[in-house]
Design a protein that fits this description.
about 325 residues; 3 domains; 9 helices
Amino acid sequence: MSSIMDFGDAQHLSELRIVLMGYRTAGKSSAGNTILGREEFDLKTSAQCVRRHGEVADRHITVIEAPGWWKNYTVEKSPEILKQEILLSVSLCPPGPHAVLLIIRVDDRFKETEIKTVQDHLDLLSERVWSHTIVLFTHGDRLLDTSIERHIESEGQDLQWLVDKCGNRYHVLNNLNRSDDTQIKELLEKIEETVAENNGRHFEIDRKILQEVEERRRAEEERAEERMKRMQKKRENIRSQMMRGVGKFDTWSVGSSAYSSFGSHSGVSSRSDSPFSSVDGSNLQKRCNSMGLPSPYMSGDERSDTMSVRSSAYSSDTAEAEDSG
């Protein structure tokens, strides 16, 4: 099995535009760093497309990394924002990418369940994208002495289907051996051959599709803005209620302070254990007796019992008075 046929009309392009696609953990960011020859892509997962530029092998290279999908998730299970980013990725390098690199780990078994996952996510861009797609195997160091051709044959019909779907276009990268310039030069040449296969044309997504994506995105942004406004209004209401509560507390505090001031001037102590205590205990005891109040020196339970007894006695006296009337 050969990699890509040599085309006599393949031209050396001074500019190449590339989009990286694939499932999460496939190695898209590492592949982008290897292509550009430096650490341009953060290895952390991003929910949005990332665009980087560089000068490589006498070419100006633009690389777009699209967010990855979950390996076993069908396109129906993928979030809407991911599908929108996949669609937008090819518009971030106008007028369009020369090639879409579909990233696959060479040490991952490509199974039948993944055929639908890969196909449906790329089909978001239309069927035409497959004629511009190259399978890029990462973690090439795991092959050891096995050639990529023998590896594809040994993996069976599922991986063979993918390679055939991409017009038998594939390449392998060893991200641990970036000093090997030949692997990147060969990749760029294969991209130029892909352009030649497409009569010198790059991939361009249907403008109507992009317009629909932009409209959906604007609608979502407007809904998000409305949610933010509602949340801010809710916070303001809560803050206003809290401030009113603080105002009531301050009023209570002022009243409490006035009571304490009165107590200190009238000889009533503001001690928490007995607010009716005074310096002159005998006078306070007499005053309470004359008013029919329990002793201020009683415990809470004793005062309650005393008040209950007196209340009962008052009720009894009143009943007798009513009967005698």
